[in-house]
């Protein structure tokens, strides 16, 4: 146990009956418990979105664009054909930022202020790289095959909520009827799912910056524990967790 | 804030010394390696055996299943190790996992069934 324990000893027996009252039966604080409950509800939202995506794909049969034929660009690589490589880079950045976050939590458990600042700082950096990458990904997706982002006119091929030119695979033409709408749904789901996730990342970066400032100010050193870093850590890992699923269901399958 | 003896700082029970920290960090780097290796393998599969090429072969179903298994494996590592759910009390683990798993399986099965009904209904396959 750490020497930084400058709170009075609890007046209740922590090893007594868990459900007898006065203590948390889960041995976690209110804040951490509520963060977990929030994450469960948020996971249901993302689960709902991904399931809706699966529903749309099944309903359209084979008439759905293959993501590796849509996402094959790489910044500064010109017209090089590199399917999924940039998404792989983004995925790797998010995993690494999750690692730096868990290292910040570990440093907090040792009351190592410098360690928390270092690892949390790197987590902020990783988050910024990811959000920037997503902005680039959206720009490239919207610009469409002609690469012109600003051509929203009737002659352009820009992706919008109503139109995009990422067609369905050839085999889809054996079906008729609703097929023309399939690529449209593809863009809608791309914007909504990656947008909703991207907004989570953006919020996470803002929260991480706020807590980083408080760490530097010594707020948690004075408090005697870095539980706040644990709590924002849970949120940050969750954002990484969601991306693991988005990556599989949107880009690979 | 003045000290109160009726507030339990549960976070203090997670504190550890440098020696224990070393062990924990070793585990973190191990999990990092596993997550990176799985992701690299998925990318390799995604590029070499892409959906566009494999979709109409009988192997595609198995590739899809492999992706799902790998993804759930990655998710388990993140939740159990990075989010420390593995270190929590049993009642807490189930309180978080059971309702979610139950609901998401129901949602998945029902939406998949309804989705397939749309195309089967429309094209009479």
Give a verbal description of the structure.
The complex is a heterodimer of chains A (253) and B (125). Chain A is 62% helix and 0% strand. Chain A has 7 helices and no strands. Chain A has helices at residues 30-59, 67-70, 85-109, 113-143, 182-217, 219-223, 227-252. In chain A, helix 3 packs antiparallel against helix 4 (113-143). The N and C termini of chain A lie far apart (48 Å). Helix content of chain B is 74%, strand content 0%. Chain B contains 4 helices and no strands. Chain B has helices spanning 18-48, 51-54, 60-82, 90-123. The longest helix of chain B is centred in the C-terminal third of the chain and has 34 residues, at 90-123. The radius of gyration of chain B is 22 Å and the shape is flat. Chains A and B meet through helix 1, helix 2, helix 3 and helix 7 of A and helix 1, helix 3 and helix 4 of B.
The CA-CA distance between the termini of chain A, in Å, is 48 Å
Largest sheet of chain A: none
Helix content of chain B: over 70%
Strand content of the residues of chain B, in percent? under 5%
By DSSP, the count of extended strands of chain A is 0
Low-confidence stretches of chain B: none
Would you report the number of β strands of chain B?
0
Helical/strand content category of chain A: mainly alpha
Radius of gyration of chain A: 23 Å
Give the helix level of chain A as a range of percent: 55-70%
| End-to-end distance of chain B | 70 Å
Number of helices of chain A: 7
Structural class estimated from helices and strands of chain B: mainly alpha
Count of DSSP helices of chain B?
A: 4
Quaternary = heterodimer
Tell me, rounded to a whole number, the average pLDDT of chain B: 89
Task: Briefly say what this structure is.
The complex is a heterodimer of chains A (253) and B (125). Chain A is mainly alpha-helical. Chain A has helices at 30-59, 67-70, 85-109, 113-143, 182-217, 219-223, 227-252.
